[in-house]
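U., I forgot to send this yesterday:
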Amino acid sequence: MKLSVIVPVFNSAVFISETFRELADYLEKQGEEYELLFVDDGSRDNTGSILEELAGRHPRVFLIRNGANRGKGYSVRAGMKQAQGDFLVFTDADLAYPPTEIGKIVHTLRSGADLAIATRVAPASRFIMNPEFFGYIYTRHLGSRLFNWLVRKVLDLSIYDTQAGLKGFSRKAKEIIFNRQTLEGFTFDVELIYIAKKFDLKVREVPVFFRYFSEPTTVSFAKQSLASVKDLFSIRAKNLKGIYQ
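Result:
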C-alpha cells in the first residue's frame, strides 16, 4: 500500500526545511512505499526555491506550484489530483500535528474508514501550547463551537471538528470527493465532509496530539469566520443545483 502525504504551503521559508526533514524522516522510518507532495500556493518569499532544491535531492518528494495564491482548498485539491497513493493524507505545513499523528490517520483508514478526520475536541486529544495563548484558545474554542453549531444547522453534519488541518482519505474517497470539491478557501474542509456524507462514505473522527504555535490577528480571524459562514450557504446552494452529483 502506497501512502501520499500532501502539504499545502504559503510563505513558509522560515520553517519549511525543518518540516521537510521531519516528514521525510518519519515516512522513511515506516518502511513502506510513500510520496511526499508539497504544494506551493504562490509564496512571495523563497519557499518555492527551498522546496525545489530539497525535492531535487529526494526521489520521493515532489513540488507542485500554483503560480498564484489560490487558497488552501485549491492547493489540497491540486495535490490530491496528482497523488498516486492508496491512502492519502494532508497536513499543515507548520506541523501543528506532529508527523506521528499521520500514523493514527492511516491506521483508521486501514481499519475501513474512507475519510479519517483529526478531532481536537475529543476527550482523548491533547494540546501543547505557550501560556500566552490561553486567551486565544478560549476565544477560538467558543468560535469553533458556534461554527460547528452552524454546520449542523445549515448542512446537517454531525462532525465535531470540521476544520482540523489533518485528514486522510482512501483512494475511493479521493476520487469521489476531489472531483467534486469546489471551494478554494479554508471552508473546503466542510465541503469535502459534506460530499463524503452525501455519498455515504465511512467517516471516522480521530483523537490527536496538537501544538499551538501562533495566534492569528483578530481582524484576520473575523474575516475568515465571516467568509466561512457564507461558504456554508454556498455549499447548500450548490447541492440544490446538483453540482455534487
